C-alpha cells in the first residue's frame, strides 16, 4: 500500500503541497488530478524519493521510500525524458541497470514488450527497431518507448503522468490494456491526466489538487452521486401538467424531441418516474449523471472563489 500522510512541501516560502493525505492499495488505479501548477509533479517527486517532504510521511508497504525501494517503482513523465542520441536498446540497458536489472533480463523483457506493442504493425523488424536512435523515432513511438521503459522493471508502484500524450486511438487501447493488466497483477498505479474521460475509465478513487491542497477526494462513484445533476431527460408523450404539479419539480422544458425535467433533489425522481411510467410510449427516461470533467470544473471553480 502507498500511504501519503499529512504531507506538506515548501520551496522557500512557497507552499507547493499543503497537508495532503491519501492511500492507494495494491491492484488499484488511483487518480491524482489538478490543473497545471496544482502540485502534482512535486507530489510525484516526493513519492519517488526525489524530494523530501517538509513535513509528513510517505511509505510504500510501511517502508520509507529510499534507494532500497525505488527499484520497484516506475515513472512515466509528462515531458519526454529519453536520451535522444542513444538507441532504444542502449536506453533500455541504461534505465534497466539503474533499476538493478541484469543485462540479459533487460533485453529479454525489452523484446517481449516491443513485440507486444508492435505485433500488429506490418513489417516490424525487432532488431532494426532496437538499434534506432531515439531521435529517429516519431513522437508516438518515443512515447511508446518511454512507457515500455517505465514498466521494464515490472514495477510494484507505477506513476503515469499524461501517459497517452501523442498517441493514436489504437495505441491508447494498447496502453489501457497493459495498465489494466498490471493492476490485475497487483501493481499500485497512480494515474494523472487532463483527459477526464481517461480517468473515468480507470480510477475508482481520486484526489483533485488546487494550489497544493486537496479540494475533492474519495471514491468516484460517491463523488458522482454527490454531484448528481438534477435533470431528468424523457422522450415520449406523458402528462406534463401532472409532472409539473409534483412537489420538487422546478420546470419541464421541451428541447428538440425530448423533455428536460429539472428537480430539486434525487428523491423527486421517484415521484416523476411514477407519473412517467404510466405513459405507453416512453423511449427514454434518464437521470443525468455528471461527467468527471463537469465535476472537476465545478469544484475547482468553487475553490477559486473561496
Write a concise keyword list for the protein shown above:
Alpha-Beta Plaits; six-stranded mixed β-sheet; alpha/beta; 14 strands; four-stranded antiparallel β-sheet; 306 residues; 11 helices; Rossmann fold
Strand order of the largest sheet: 6-7-8-3-9-10
Which residue ranges are poorly predicted, with pLDDT under 50 across at least 5 consecutive positions?
none
Which percent range describes the beta-strand content? Answer: 25-35%
Mean pLDDT: 90
Order of helices and strands: EEEHEEEHHHHEHEHEEHEHEEHEH
How would you describe what is shown here?
- The protein has 306 residues and is α/β, with parallel strands linked by helices.
- It folds into 2 domains: 2-224, Rossmann fold (3-Layer(aba) Sandwich); 229-288, Alpha-Beta Plaits.
- Helix content is 36%, strand content 27%.
- The strands form 3 sheets. A 6-stranded mixed beta sheet has the order 6-7-8-3-9-10. Strands 2-1-4-5 form a 4-stranded antiparallel beta sheet, with helices on one face.
- The two termini are 34 Å apart.
Amino acid at each position: 500500500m502507498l500511504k501519503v500522510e499529512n504531507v506538506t512541501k515548501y520551496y522557500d516560502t512557497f507552499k507547493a503541497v499543503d497537508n495532503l493525505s491519501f492511500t492507494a492499495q495494491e491492484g488499484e488505479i488511483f487518480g491524482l488530478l489538478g490543473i497545471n501548477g496544482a502540485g502534482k509533479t512535486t507530489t510525484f517527486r516526493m513519492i519517488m524519493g526525489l524530494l523530501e517532504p517538509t513535513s509528513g510521511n510517505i511509505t510504500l508497504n510501511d517502508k520509507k521510500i529510499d534507494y532500497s525501494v525505488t527499484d520497484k517503482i516506475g515513472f512515466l513523465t509528462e515531458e519526454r525524458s529519453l536520451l535522444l542520441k542513444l538507441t532504444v536498446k542502449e536506453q533500455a540497458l541504461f534505465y534497466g541497470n539503474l533499476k538493478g536489472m541484469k543485462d540479459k533480463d533487460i533485453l529479454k523483457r525489452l523484446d517481449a514488450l516491443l513485440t507486444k506493442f508492435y505485433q500488429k504493425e506490418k513489417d516490424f523488424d525487432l532488431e532494426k527497431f532496437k538499434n534506432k536512435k531515439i531521435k529517429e523515432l516519431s513522437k508516438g513511438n518515443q512515447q511508446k518507448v518511454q512507457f515500455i521503459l517505465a514498466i521494464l522493471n515490472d514495477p510494484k508502484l507505477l506513476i503515469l503522468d499524461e501517459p497517452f500524450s501523442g498517441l493514436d486511438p489504437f495505441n491508447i487501447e494498447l496502453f489501457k490494456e497493459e495498465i489494466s493488466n498490471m493492476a490485475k497483477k497487483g501493481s499500485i498505479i497512480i494515474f494523472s491526466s487532463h483527459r477526464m474521460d481517461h480517468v473515468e475509465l480507470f480510477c475508482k478513487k481520486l484526489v483533485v489538487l488546487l494550489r497544493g491542497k486537496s479540494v475533492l477526494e474519495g471514491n468516484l462513484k460517491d463523488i458522482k452521486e454527490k454531484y448528481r445533476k438534477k435533470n431528468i431527460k424523457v422522450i415520449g408523450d406523458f402528462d406534463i401538467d401532472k409532472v409539473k404539479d409534483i412537489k420538487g419539480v422546478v420546470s419541464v422544458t421541451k428541447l428538440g424531441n425530448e423533455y428536460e425535467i429539472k428537480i430539486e433533489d434525487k428523491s423527486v425522481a421517484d415521484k416523476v418516474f411514477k407519473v412517467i411510467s404510466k405513459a405507453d410510449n416512453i423511449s427514454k427516461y434518464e437521470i443525468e449523471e455528471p461527467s468527471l470533467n463537469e465535476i472537476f470544473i465545478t469544484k475547482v471553480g468553487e475553490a477559486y472563489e473561496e
